[in-house]
């Protein structure tokens, strides 16, 4: 199987040794195939963010394996996990988390420079990505000069800047009004399809989930 992501037997309890442990994930397994876009659907509090943090190597599970591009990352050192995160994974959150003192283009250029890409190549890629989401004319603007939907489109470009193989998105349009959410989500899907990216996208919007290849409900797999 050529999976980009495999989670195998993942369990996670917060505050395990304290007086009030919170059991969030229990023996959860799922996979995302190459080029596949999977919706992760569950109500608020069910563990979507926890699962995405574990898949994104930002947190560690109590049990189970996290396999990314056929490499088991569970027991790897921090350095290898950081490297995998920077080169193979792209992240989008509910709030854009763009750097406020930099322009849209610079926000997309900086992570590429951190990965050793030349300034010229990084700028060209930023311009190309901004063009794809209809923001070529806003490249020199800072996040505060943009609307919520525009900020989120820049965040998509930043997530794709280093050509990851897997996009992890945590309710990427959850902060937008329904009409904007629809358009912005379409742009994300187009971007993902055009680049052949694999994605795991958390949402509690069934309509959005229906536009993806497959839907995983958290309480069913847990
Ligand atoms: P979702 O993203 O689906 O809303 P989360 O993964 O954020 O769910 O949270 C799942 C559960 O774990 C919730 O009950 C939440 O309160 C709890 N939780 C999340 N993070 C922590 C933490 N650091 N410590 C204790 N409980 C947590
Ligand atoms: Mg969440």
Characterization of the model:
- By secondary structure, this protein is of the alpha/beta class.
- The chain has a single domain (3-14, 22-220), classed as P-loop containing nucleotide triphosphate hydrolases (Rossmann fold).
- The protein is 37% helix and 25% strand.
- It has a five-stranded parallel sheet, with helices on both faces. Strands 2-1-4-5 form a four-stranded antiparallel sheet, covered by helices on one side.
- Helix 3 (104-114) packs across helix 4 (119-132), helix 3 packs parallel to helix 5 and helix 5 runs parallel beside helix 6.
- The longest helix is centred in the C-terminal third of the chain and has 18 residues, at 178-195.
- The two termini are 22 Å apart.
- Adenosine-5'-diphosphate (ADP) is lined by residues 14-15, 22, 24, 42, 44-50.
Layout of secondary structure:
Layout: E1 3-14, E2 22-33, E3 37-41, H1 48-55, E4 63-68, E5 71-72, H2 78-88, E6 89-92, H3 104-114, H4 119-132, H5 148-160, E7 166-170, H6 178-195, E8 198-203, H7 206-209, E9 214-217, H8 218-221
Bound molecules: adenosine-5'-diphosphate and magnesium ion.
> Which CATH architecture would you pick?
3-Layer(aba) Sandwich
User: What is the N-to-C succession of helices and strands?
Assistant: EEEHEEHEHHHEHEHEH
Number of domains: 1
User: What is the makeup of the main sheet?
Assistant: 5 strands, parallel
Predict the CATH topology.
Rossmann fold
CATH class: Alpha Beta
Attached small molecules: adenosine-5'-diphosphate, magnesium ion
As a percent range, the share of strand residues is 25-35%
Helix/strand class: alpha/beta
Shape: globular
By CATH, the superfamily comes out as P-loop containing nucleotide triphosphate hydrolases
Radius of gyration: 17 Å
Tally the beta strands. 9
